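Hi! If you just cloned this repository, the fastest way to understand the data is to look at a raw example. We've pasted two of them here, unedited. The first protein comes first, obviously.
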Amino acid sequence: MGEILAAAPLARELRKLWPGVALTVSTGTETGQALARKHFLPLGALVCYFPLDIPWAVRRYLERLRPHLIITLESEIWPNFLDLSQQRGVLLALANARMSDKSFRRLLRYRRYSIDLINKYDLLSASGRQDYQRLKELGVPAEKLHLSGNLKYDRLLQERDEARARNFRRLLQGEQDLSAGKEPIFLAASTHPGEEEVVLAAYEQLRGPYPALLLVLAPRHPERAASLAERLTNRRLAFHYWSRLLAGPEARRHPVVLVDTIGDLFSLYGAADLAFVGGSLVPHGGQNILEPAAWGLSPFYGPHLENFRWAVEILEEAGAGMTVTDAASLAAAGLELLKDPERRRDLGARAQAALVPHQGAARRQAELIAELWQRKANSRTQIRQK
């Protein structure tokens, strides 16, 4: 889902450079497919599933679509797909290239094979300094490798819908008079199994000094909402499904809202006062901790952010973001910011300002792709002239 959202600004920039380009967007999951249809069908793009990396499946896919240029994102490196695409003369670009600790160790161990595979790309655009250095260490030639910034930075500030966030805040306030919206909202976002119990324990501690505190619980996979509903019932925490608040049949009056929809999380950050980002208390690798930063929130997160080291570096350089390890430390961090609104606003402003220098990544990557295409077109012209 993150890659689909990151691809949107790149697609828009490519359309500006090539107004008549025919776009096809593929995904590998059902949730990604639903999000792609929402964001790309209005652009006139074809949306389909990515093929299994089996030669006969890839061949049928390429024969049907007949692409001239293929752009994959982050770490989508599929051997058969790359090999068969290259054989057909298709240009290959890896945008927003990312190299996690695990992937780098594996590729470095088998460098003789992995560099041949990675070098099938005609262009690699690294999303961060560490990714750039790792690709360089693997042996990617300098003429193919570029450091152009992270697409996920670009979309964050540009795609904030403040009116939508205000509406979400109004729905969350519900029937109660919350002093003109001054009562706090605690969003626990993208949580994974093993994290909800920590969040709920911390929330119950915070409700002592802040009895009107609202918890918005948004699991990473919305299909887990039913099992989480049972857990909330066992804890005697009354809740609403977010989909029902959105649809309008009921107004918020219970202390917990359970998010069971796709595509609403980013705007929910804009409605919150506190934000914990999941996938970080368990060894999953983390989720994008810069999404709350875009809304002026200094996020809480656990120690397992191996896939988002670049984001941690940005927040640490800005003096924002808070690492927690358990329910007690999460409750303590929440209490610290609830007791000191001025500090909460200052940390949030620092987190948001840290994103500003990274704007323009989509435009830079689109221009690199356009230059790649132009070089190939010029090469073909020279061959025909000879």
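Ok, and the second one:
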Amino acid sequence: MAHHADATTPFYALMAEFDSADALLSAATAVGKAGFTKTDAYSPFPIHGLAEAIGFHEKKVAPIVLAGGVLGMLGGYGLEYWTQVIAYPMNIGGRPYHSWVSFIPPAFETTILFGAFSAVIGMLALNGLPQPYHPVFNHERFSRASQDSFFLAIEAADPKFDPIGTRQFLAGLGAREVVEVAH
């Protein structure tokens, strides 16, 4: 029986603690194969293959950086064109008003500037940062996730979530303990 989280759900997620990175990776793979989609894994260091195991394949920052770079290039070049050709045309040394070759270095710099800003802002926005509070912080042992513990959480909002069945499933994956994470 699938259970959808709503106002009556007394907790945010079930969180399992594992003894090693390999145990976390194999558990995350099993959770993904079981069809759970609202999961997250926490470890003190990057684990190769963990993002793919929990179903994280999104690469949304790259198009944001591309859009920012193109906007920067068009903005920089457009500003130069407007100032040199439309608003304040000056014939200096006999060069043409639209001297596109001399417009390239400043347009390149605005491309890099806007691309860098869009990368930082896009990364922060997509990661939901800054995030001073998250329900997993309520678990007393979660502070060990940055030191020597490995955690896997399945949210109660997951379509396949069943409080009893999910708890038994996580315990069967070799978890040290499975706890409910309060909202």
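That's it. A detail worth noticing about the second one: The helical segments are 21-33, 50-53, 61-87, 100-126, 163-172.
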